[in-house]
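ok, trying the design again with the full structure, not the truncated one.
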């Protein structure tokens, strides 16, 4: 079932990429595994998915411990990149830096400073995306325009963070066409600020947007990284 779902998703990604004059391999698929068992993570990575996204530190810690045990070391490809995609509190930054290769949900200068501090202690450079808010929903996290500018101005002082681009989440709609204005807003924001990102991402920034219900519209509006869980593991 996972194999069939992946094939369908990859076909849709290729079709949407073509509509936006790009190739399918220019779009990174992050498989979201927040409620997914270990064996299914093994299966999806065995099918060529190289990026895994987790929403919560506690759940991710348990999975990392399972994969690092002697019985699991041969199952997960060494090239797998782990993404923290859920809301991250500053007091969890230390563990996030220890566990993850990529933190997509930097939504405040305070959090960015704490991530940088913990990364420096570990002598680690960590890739991050700045989460921006493109809707008025109180349930969504992310920086608004003024706070985004403040964070961007501080990038040169955060030496252990590689700022690669931005991440966002559109409101949920039954018809993904309704999400297009929100995706377009994120793309325009990225175009405005990309020259302030860490090299070489100032020239080729990451725009992480689009989930199971709207990733096709997101790609057509400029996304080059999609975060998909339900459509893979349903």
């Amino acid at each position: 079932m996972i194999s069939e779902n992946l094939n369908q998703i990859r076909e849709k990604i290729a079709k949407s990429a073509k509509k936006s004059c790009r190739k399918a391999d220019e779009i990174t698929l992050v498989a979201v595994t927040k409620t997914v068992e270990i064996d299914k993570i093994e299966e999806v990575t065995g099918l060529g998915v190289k990026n895994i996204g987790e929403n919560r530190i506690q759940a991710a810690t348990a999975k990392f411990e399972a994969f690092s045990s002697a019985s699991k070391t041969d199952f997960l490809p060494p090239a797998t990149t782990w993404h923290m995609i859920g809301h991250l509190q500053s007091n969890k930054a230390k563990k996030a830096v220890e566990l993850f290769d990529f933190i997509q949900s930097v939504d405040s200068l305070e959090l960015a400073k704490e991530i940088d501090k913990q990364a420096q202690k570990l002598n680690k450079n960590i890739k991050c995306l700045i989460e921006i808010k493109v809707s008025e929903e109180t349930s969504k996290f992310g920086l608004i325009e003024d706070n985004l500018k403040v964070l961007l101005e501080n990038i040169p002082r955060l030496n252990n963070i590689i700022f690669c681009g931005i991440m966002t989440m559109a409101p949920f709609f039954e018809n993904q066409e309704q999400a297009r204005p929100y995706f377009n807003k994120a793309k325009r924001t990225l175009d405005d600020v990309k020259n302030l990102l860490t090299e070489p991402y100032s020239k080729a920034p990451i725009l992480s947007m689009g989930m199971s219900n709207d990733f096709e519209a997101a790609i057509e509006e400029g996304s080059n990284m999609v975060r998909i869980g339900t459509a893979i593991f349903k």
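Keeping the full-length input from now on. The chain has a mean pLDDT of 93.
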